[in-house]
Design a protein that fits this description.
With about 70 residues, the chain is mostly beta strands. The protein has one domain. Helix content is about 0%, strand content about 35%. It has a four-stranded antiparallel β-sheet with strand order 2-1-5-6, with no helix packed on it. It has a two-stranded antiparallel ribbon with strand order 3-4. The chain is globular, with a radius of gyration of 12 Å.
Length: about 70
């Protein structure tokens, strides 16, 4: 995934599971949490100007599934 113009990001998905929120740190960095229910797969970023998929596969260790923590 190209690491530029991240200021235009509108949504982020971990293997088709949307994140609840994210913070733009800069045009090159976004901070977010893995959403509950996410599984091993791609990270997709939607932006005003199109979509991008990270070439690296996001891996949930040992088949675990992230969950909500209140």
């Amino acid at each position: 995934m190209s690491r530029h113009a991240l200021s235009w990001v509108t949504n982020i998905f971990f293997n088709n599971v949307a994140v609840a929120s994210f913070t733009r740190i800069s045009d090159f960095l976004i901070r977010t949490k893995v959403p509950p229910g996410a599984t091993t797969g791609s990270i997709l970023v939607h932006s005003t100007y199109g979509n991008g998929t990270d070439p690296e596969v996001f891996v949930v260790p040992n088949g675990l599934t992230p969950r909500s923590v209140d």
